[in-house]
């Protein structure tokens, strides 16, 4: 693939912000929900350093919304979500893994409750719309399920709040983490949440009119100049440090929430009966056979890895690396690895088979990188 380009077509959807992204120094894209997602601007490390000190504007339109609207919207939301949404509040966001009947994770969206009868599931990279429409149809529910014209634009970084206050007013500062509120822009009301796929703080603006994409981008860019704003994107280094898992990379349909450490976001002990609950209860009872761990790999700058790299103990395969990168602030190579349960313990010494040969490595808990990075600074 090296050096080859992505051939454009209607199947590879542009976003309301593509016109601006393409002239803002983007140097790499991936495809996510059949849409373009920037992955690199200057280079991974420069983007990372800038994100941690300033503010960036991210086109995350690929986080498409699956909208549930109607009398049975709440019922359907509770049925598909492994997190208990029975008491979901209007104006709140919930990280809500979605499983199939076998407990396998099919998406890990953020659920937003917009009204008594209206939800958005802000999805990761899989066709959740088809699953939800199929369930609504099969159960003859009174609900309309669609993908509305809604495209999130994230403003991330330590200066995000000041910039957002300049654009949308001081009131934005009162929006709490994982809450959202409507703010006016050019005569429309936009939902803005304090959320985003980084630990640097920030907001996500749910633009609800493709036609306004360029105007919204430009309004933020103009006020952002004094904060040294740059175009950016979810950053591989920062998100691994933060322990944020990527659907399709660190988990997919071969895994359950119990195996990837998402048990705190699912509700096995509540009364709600969601799809996959019985299978997950059984797995909890029987015990998991593999578990996603953090991994710290020896060596200085790691060359780009070709995932999945094998993880070995004494020459025997015990799992594979799902994502890994060199972190400048951690001053080491960090990543995630799916490891057979019997060996999935923090501080276990392992080796990783990389393109540059076998390297020593050590397992740790996923949440630990962040504490370790913080304590180094
Ligand atoms: N924003 C929006 N939609 C999304 C993502 C996003 N859809 C796909 C993907 N990202 C979903 N995955 C996650 C994973 C973690 C978080 C957000 C989206 C996250 N987690 C918090 C944390 O780990 O600190 C806490 C979550 C909680 O307390 O409920 O932010 O980024 N719109």
Molecular structure report:
With 377 residues, the chain is of the alpha+beta class. Among the domains are: 18-63 and 150-240, 2-Layer Sandwich (Gyrase A, domain 2); 289-377, Elongation Factor Tu (Ef-tu), domain 3. 21% of the residues lie in helices and 31% in strands. It has 9 helices and 21 strands. It has helices spanning 18-21, 44-53, 73-80, 128-138, 160-168, 213-224, 236-241, 277-286, 368-376, and strands spanning 28-32, 35-40, 56-59, 65-69, 93-95, 98-99, 105-107, 110-115, 118-122, 144-146, 151-156, 180-185, 188-193, 202-207, 230-232, 290-297, 310-313, 316-327, 332-340, 349-354, 357-364. Helix 5 (160-168) packs across helix 6. It is globular and about 65 Å long. The mean pLDDT is 94.
In short:
By secondary structure, the chain is α+β, with helices and mostly antiparallel strands.
The Cα radius of gyration reads 21 Å
Q: What distance separates the N and C termini?
A: 38 Å
From the 3D structure, determine the CATH topology of the domain at 18-63 and 150-240.
Answer: Gyrase A, domain 2
Give a short account of the largest sheet: 6 strands, mixed
What is the global morphology? globular
Task: Please give the share of residues in helix.
Answer: 10-25%
- CATH homologous superfamily annotation of the domain at 18-63 and 150-240: Probable tRNA modification gtpase trme, domain 1
Structural category? alpha+beta
Name the CATH class of the domain at 18-63 and 150-240. Answer: Alpha Beta
Number of helices: 9
Compute the average pLDDT.
94
């Amino acid at each position: 693939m090296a050096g080859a380009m992505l051939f454009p077509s209607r199947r590879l959807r542009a976003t309301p912000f593509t016109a601006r992204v393409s002239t803002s120094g983007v140097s790499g894209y991936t495809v996510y929900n059949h849409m373009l997602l920037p992955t690199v601007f200057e280079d991974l490390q420069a983007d990372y350093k800038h994100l941690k000190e300033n503010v960036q504007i991210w086109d995350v339109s690929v986080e498409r919304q699956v909208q549930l609207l109607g009398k049975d919207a709440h019922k359907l939301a509770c049925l598909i979500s492994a997190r208990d949404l029975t008491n979901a509040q209007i104006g709140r966001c919930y990280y809500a893994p979605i499983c199939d009947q076998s407990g396998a994770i099919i998406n890990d969206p953020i659920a937003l409750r917009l009204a008594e009868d209206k939800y958005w599931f802000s999805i990761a990279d899989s066709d959740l719309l088809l699953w939800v429409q199929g369930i609504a149809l099969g159960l003859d529910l009174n609900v309309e399920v669609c993908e509305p014209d809604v495209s999130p634009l994230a403003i991330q970084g330590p200066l995000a709040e000041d910039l957002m206050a300049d654009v949308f007013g001081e009131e934005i500062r009162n929006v709490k983490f994982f809450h959202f509120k409507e703010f006016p822009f050019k005569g429309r009301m936009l939902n803005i949440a304090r959320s985003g796929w980084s630990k640097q703080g920030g907001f996500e603006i749910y633009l609800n009119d493709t036609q306004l994409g360029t105007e919204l981008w430009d309004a933020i860019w103009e006020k952002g100049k004094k904060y040294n704003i740059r175009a950016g994107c979810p950053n591989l280094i920062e998100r691994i440090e933060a322990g944020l898992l990527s659907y399709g990379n660190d988990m997919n349909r071969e895994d359950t929430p119990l195996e990837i450490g998402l048990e705190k976001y699912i509700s096995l002990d509540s009364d709600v009966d969601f799809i996959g609950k019985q299978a997950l209860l059984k797995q909890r009872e029987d015990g998991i056979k593999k578990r996603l761990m953090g991994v710290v790999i020896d060596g200085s700058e790691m060359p780009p890895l070709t995932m999945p790299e094998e993880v070995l103990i004494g020459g025997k395969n015990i799992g594979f690396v799902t994502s890994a990168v060199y972190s400048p602030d951690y001053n080491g190579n960090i990543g995630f690895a799916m490891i057979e349960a019997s060996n999935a313990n923090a501080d276990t010494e392992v080796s990783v088979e990389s393109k540059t040969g076998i390297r020593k490595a050590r397992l740790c808990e996923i949440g630990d990188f962040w504490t370790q990075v913080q304590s180094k600074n």
